[in-house]
Design goal:
Length: 296
């Protein structure tokens, strides 16, 4: 049995990760400052991981084989910029530092597709579509800058001679199971509202990912991590776009600067590709809004 510690275990993605890993036979330790961690966790501990001492204490107490670091201020502009940047970067550093120093074998850090820079008030256009891990990054607010720093923090530990194996995942707009039944998403809108109003989902290039698919990717990544180059980064998104019309048509209408690149997208193809995860991990998303959305 693998002992896996999940930070942010009460969050939108964290809840699904806890359940998925527990069902796969992991002994899951949930760590979150707020309640809501699923009962499938063997132990749940409230802890402030922005405090390096507490991060060390958590690792020393549980001695996990692996850490899935999801804890963060999860949405842009939900807190002041200073708090968002300080919290997210400190969390990433403390978790990587404490895990590496206490001999944790594997660490997966959650990043974000927002590091690409879409939505910038100064203007943004993709270098190409679909976007992959080689696309230039261009953060423009405290949230996406903090996520890029989290990636670079992970990469620095991977380069620094640590025996810990590291990777980062950029999950697209995470849709929790209850969201398909009409609960508000992390943006405050329902899925139906995001589909009916392209201006809502268009600002994030119509990307999305079922939380259970994200959890499946993380489980596979944990298994494959020892065989991968240390410090890899993976996009994770659904196989289609969260849009009723092809992106080649609807994306330029919402974001004109994408028109040239969007012409390369066909059918229901999304703006982000998870081909690297498919190639290196054998993971492909199973769930689509076409099959999961409850419309009754």
């Amino acid at each position: 049995m693998t002992r896996t510690l999940v930070t942010g275990s009460a969050g939108r993605l964290g809840r699904s990760v806890v359940v998925s890993l527990a069902q796969a036979g992991h002994e899951v330790i949930g760590v979150d400052a707020v309640p809501g961690t699923p009962a499938e966790a063997a132990v749940t501990l409230p802890a402030d991981l922005t405090n390096l001492g507490e991060a060390y204490d958590v690792m020393a107490r549980f001695r996990p084989d692996a850490v899935i670091h999801l804890a963060a201020i999860a949405t842009p502009f939900s807190r002041t910029d200073g708090v968002t940047f300080r919290t997210n970067t400190q969390l990433a550093f403390n978790v990587c530092q404490a895990a590496s120093s206490t001999g944790v074998g594997k660490v997966v850090v959650a990043s974000s597709p927002t590091v690409i820079g879409y939505g910038s008030p100064g203007g943004w256009a993709p270098s190409y579509l679909p976007i992959d891990e080689e696309h230039p990054v261009a953060p423009w607010n405290a949230y996406n800058l903090s996520k890029l720093v989290a990636e670079q923090t992970m990469a620095a530990f991977a380069r620094g001679g640590s025996k810990t194996r590291f990777a980062a995942v950029r999950p697209c707009f995470v849709v929790a199971p209850e969201d398909w039944a009409g609960a508000p998403t992390q943006s405050g809108h329902t899925i139906v509202e995001r589909l009916d109003r392209p201006d809502i989902a268009g600002v994030s290039l119509f990307n999305y990912l079922d939380a259970r698919d994200a959890s499946d990717l993380i489980a596979v990544l944990l298994e494959r991590l020892p065989d991968l180059p240390n410090g890899e980064v993976f996009f994770a998104g659904a196989a289609d776009a969260l849009a009723r019309e092809p992106l080649a048509e609807v994306l330029p209408a919402v974001m004109p600067s994408t028109a040239a690149a969007a012409a390369n997208l066909t059918g229901t193809s999304p703006a982000f590709t998870s081909a690297k995860a498919g190639r290196m991990l054998g993971w492909t998303p199973k769930r689509s809004w076409h099959t999961e959305l409850e419309t009754g």
